[in-house]
Amino acid sequence: MQKSMPNLYDSELQLTEYCLKVNPKSYGSWHHRQWVLITRPDPDWKTELNLCNKYLKMDERNFHTWHYRSFVVSKCQPSLKDEFDFTTEKLLDNFSNYSAWHYRSKMLVELYPDVKGGRPIEDSHHKHELKMVQSAAFTDPDDTSAWFYQRWLLGAVKNNVDLAVISVTPSNTSLAFSQYVSKDFVNSKIEIIINDLPVSGEWLSCIGNQYDNLWIFKHNVLIEDGLDIKVQYEIENGQKQVLSCVPIKPFTYVGRNKVNFQKHYSVPVLNELKDQLESCRQLLAMEPDNKWTLLTTTVFLNCINAKLYHTEVIDNLKTLKSIDKLRAGYYEDLKTKWCIENQLYKDYENGELVFKVNFGEKISCLPHLQYYSHCEKVDLSNQNLTSKVLPSLIVLQNCKCLSLKNNKLTSLRGFPSLALEELDLQGNDLDINEVNRIREVFKGNIIF
Amino acid sequence: MPKGEIIEFITSCQDSESGGISASIGHDPHILYTLSAVQVLAMYDRLDAIDVDGVVRYIVSLQQEDGSFDGDKWGEVDTRFSFCAVMILSLLHRLDAININKTVDFVLSCMNFDCGFGSKPGSESHAGLIYCCVGTLSICKRMDALRADELAWWLCERQLPSGGLNGRPEKLPDLCYSWWVMSSLSMLNRIHWVDKKSLEQFILACQDSETGGFSDRPGDIPDPFHTVFGLAGLSLLGDTSIKLVNPTYCMPQETIDRLKLEPQVLHI
Ligand SMILES: [Zn+2]
Fold first, then answer.
1. Where is the Prenyltransferase alpha-alpha toroid domain (chain B) (predicted)?
2. For chain A, which domains are there?
3. Interface membership of B265 toward A (CB under 8 Å)
4. Which residues fall within 8 angstroms of residue B204, CB to CB, at 6 or more apart?
């Protein structure tokens, strides 16, 4: 006897349910079940949602079930609020449920975006979520799930692309940005103006890709003294801004923008962060060696006012390095990044034309290096730089004199082609043959 | 191993109609086995042993309107298949056959709050899928689109006191994550964010002294899957008794160099 189609579909559902009972992580079974339901004309989504609830009770972290749930939700469309509340329920059950935090993040930005302010999350909800993380953290500070959610909340601010610096010489016009921008972006939003005339030319990425944070502008204007050079660029909603260059020496012009690495929160959110910082400090007084409390305190300090709390932040990172040894490399690089940010404010205010590491800590990487792309002299001597940073030097497009003396270089693999006049490599554990090989292709003087 | 027989076997697994390659003779073709076939032939420098145009045709046929890829004609979408597609085509120097911008856009639509990636838009981050997505961006030279510091922090937090790595928060360590996590960190140029020494000890403890194979955790039964990721992981950690392995392709660096491929590694 031939079975009717609905019966056939039903028996397929029974079969997949049987298979899922045996192996709830089978890609094939979930996929087949999904196929049956979109193929049959009369799917029963309520039953499917209940099936998800059942499987999430058995294993709250099974990502197959979570994914199947969002598929079912996309079909039967319960209110987003119901789904959001479902994650609240799951989390109150167990704050350690990372899958629920993940699902919640998706619902949150859908339900409560900050339409007016352009931030990802509306103020009162942003604040509410921070509070929820705090209560999770107080329940069990060593459970990591909530901490990742908190980091996301702290980063959920408006993020604008900004111009960092432009430098113009007879051989090179380069523009550095705060982040990677596309060729389309520079083509459509940036205009170089010399003596009130827009200059036509071609944009080239300094690494040769479609996206870059340093762009070279090839044009035919002869760069001599007494020029008026400006960049006009479009920021949000079509507004135009102008950055003027000043001559810094014969035939050389530099235009610097304001530096800004501080995150901007709304007042209620900022106040919430300050409150939570206080609670963290109290906890820390009782348990000074708790990694998560110390890390959170440090991130709060940096988010609230990086300049003001700089010394404390750096001291904390050093402590973190010793209490969380597995991630010492992370804290070391973070320390470098925040120290460089702190120095950049001063260097840009003082119109510094030389980049020299100006703080007591040794740097281990080269973050924000494009901000120094206009410098002719870059002194990176006596640091902890390893060979993995070498390709990053490509942004030093105007550098003539580069010192990497007394670092931890072990190879020159990846050293970019730069028009250097002098390169100091002394005090590194390098193979002399390798140094000689780059001597052959290199026009400048190599000290080794 | 009998190179000739292996190549002959691969040739006979190609489906002349679709151009795809199957797990074994008479099976249905799938993008996973097509990738394995192309990788093996690339290592043997014998890509001429299959109908390359057929493979390209097969991959192109699997790309969907939104830039994603099906695994085979039955239509399961997963970021793993996006990675397989760009890996296959780049090994064949035919990346231009698909829509790269759409491929990248689909992968980026799978980015989550923690800056990691899952198997589909909305899916939770998982180290294995992060490897696939970061690898896709590395081949497509779009590593700029990642939030490198945030993602690498999440990845280095996978290291547990035993030295081993897990694939998601609050899960057990497993040797294969040494590869998924460490290869991703290598492409992000932040491999030094985990402690190499204790990870190396964990990997070596997973080797079975009798058979020489590696298992997921110390004391479990070894298998080929964990053996390859154990060895490749040791190579990333700087073990020079193993040939240098490329973090994007999980293949010998010498093969990648011979094919003149330059998968992107982020600056730091
Ligand atoms: Zn495993």
1. 3-251
2. 5-155 (1.25.40.120), 163-256 (2.60.40.1130), 267-338 (1.25.40), 347-447 (3.80.10.10)
3. yes
4. B234
